């Protein structure tokens, strides 16, 4: 049974109608393409239905990637949404498998069977995209973004599979076809790992940001501790004895190393902000009220700016150190962290116990900012 038959409990009638209109519009356009095949396929060319479906799914992919949801005016059942979405994903996986198998061994499907296979994969894709569109922004922009990305990944996997089938020799299972079929399965399997609400979606974002910031800090730590010359492993050490490498642009001066200390402290404060926020979200995060959901989205939007800020600061610390550039990046990161801590302080995830570390980190940011500015402003 098509998953679309179980959609009734997911959304109120007005949103179901809007999504059904999208489904109908795409399906009619695709049906016109498929309907034109009877005369084109008189020579038994199986490529025609596949190419038409490929074009249709590319269009659907673009709509999903760039489109907006229709905001729900009634009660939205998130649990039913996930049940229905998982059914739709499973159906796409099954249809992709059928399509791949049909073109992996002789005999090739007849033109009629090829059209049926094409129609089936198209219906599965349309169903999946329609269910995705039913997830309103009120459930969280961060959540919706991650569901959208996962949906687009499935559609791109199907597109790749169709392209491989069209370009590969008929009646032979190529490695490319095996890989692309596995790609669809992998993209579909990802759905069971998706966050189920906006709180979980924010934690996914924070975990990724924590990892990136941690890597940047470790790279600076390693560069500082390993050698006087941070580029010794990438530059040519084969120098004449009478002309040893004397390019001081590859070395940190004593002043450079003093400047690095508060910058390193600021980067560590950034990492602590992300870690502490993740703990606060786990303990206090709420998705029951629209204002709370919106606050989680705001925190996610600012948190994704932190790792680029840390990376920019880390990069400008390598010799030759430009003190004005260091100060500029220090000020930018400190301003971002102050904004971030202010948002945390005013959000529902910040209780009395969280307020203690918010105040501590606020002081740490200010201290390292001032120390870095003092050191970069000194006369050489």
TrEMBL record:
Instruction: Give the protein family.
Output: Belongs to the CCNDBP1 family.
From the UniProt entry, list the residue stretches annotated as the region Disordered: 228-250
Protein name listed in UniProt = Cyclin-D1-binding protein 1 homolog isoform X1
Q: Name the keywords, alphabetized.
A: Cell cycle, Cytoplasm, Nucleus
Q: Which residues form a coiled coil?
A: none
Domain Cyclin-D1-binding protein 1-like C-terminal per the UniProt entry, residue ranges: 235-340
Instruction: Name the lineage.
Output: Eukaryota, Metazoa, Chordata, Craniata, Vertebrata
Q: Where in the cell is it found?
A: Cytoplasm; Nucleus
Protein source organism = Austrofundulus limnaeus
- Its domain of life reads Eukaryota
Pfam families, alphabetized:
GCIP_C (PF20936), GCIP_N (PF13324)
Coarsely, its chief localization is: cytoplasm
Q: Which residues form the Cyclin-D1-binding protein 1-like N-terminal domain?
A: 85-225
């Amino acid at each position: 049974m098509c998953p679309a038959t179980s959609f009734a409990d997911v959304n109120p009638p007005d949103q179901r109608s809007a999504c059904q209109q999208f489904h109908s519009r795409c399906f009619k356009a695709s049906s016109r393409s498929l309907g034109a095949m009877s005369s084109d396929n008189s020579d038994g060319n199986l490529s025609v239905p596949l190419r038409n479906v490929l074009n249709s799914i590319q269009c659907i992919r673009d709509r999903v990637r760039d489109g907006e949801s229709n905001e729900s005016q009634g009660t939205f059942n998130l649990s039913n949404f996930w049940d229905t979405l998982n059914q739709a994903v499973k159906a796409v996986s099954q249809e992709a498998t059928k399509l791949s198998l049909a073109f992996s061994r002789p005999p090739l499907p007849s033109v009629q069977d090829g059209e049926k296979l094409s129609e089936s994969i198209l219906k599965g894709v349309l169903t999946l995209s329609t269910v995705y569109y039913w997830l309103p922004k009120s459930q969280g922009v961060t959540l919706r973004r991650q569901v959208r990305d996962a949906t687009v990944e499935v559609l791109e996997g199907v597109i790749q599979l169709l392209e491989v089938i069209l370009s590969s020799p008929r009646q032979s299972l190529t490695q490319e076809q095996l890989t692309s079929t596995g790609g669809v399965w992998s993209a579909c399997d990802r759905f069971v790992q998706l966050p189920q609400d906006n709180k979980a979606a924010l934690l996914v974002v924070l975990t990724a940001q924590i990892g990136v910031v941690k890597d940047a800090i470790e790279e600076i730590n390693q560069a500082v501790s390993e050698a006087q010359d941070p580029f010794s492993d990438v530059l040519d050490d084969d120098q004449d004895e009478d002309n040893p490498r004397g390019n001081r642009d590859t070395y940190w001066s004593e002043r450079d190393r003093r400047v690095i200390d508060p910058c390193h402290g600021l980067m560590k404060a950034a990492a602590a902000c992300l870690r502490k926020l993740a703990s606060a979200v786990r303990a206090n995060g709420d998705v029951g009220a629209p204002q709370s959901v919106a606050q989680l989205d705001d925190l996610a939007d600012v948190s994704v700016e932190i790792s680029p800020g840390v990376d920019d600061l880390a990069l400008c610390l390598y010799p030759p150190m430009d003190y004005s550039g260091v100060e500029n990046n220090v000020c930018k990161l400190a301003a971002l962290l102050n904004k971030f801590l202010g948002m945390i302080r005013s959000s529902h995830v910040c209780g009395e116990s969280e307020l203690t570390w918010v105040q501590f980190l606020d002081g740490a940011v200010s201290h390292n900012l001032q120390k870095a500015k003092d050191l970069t402003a000194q006369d050489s």
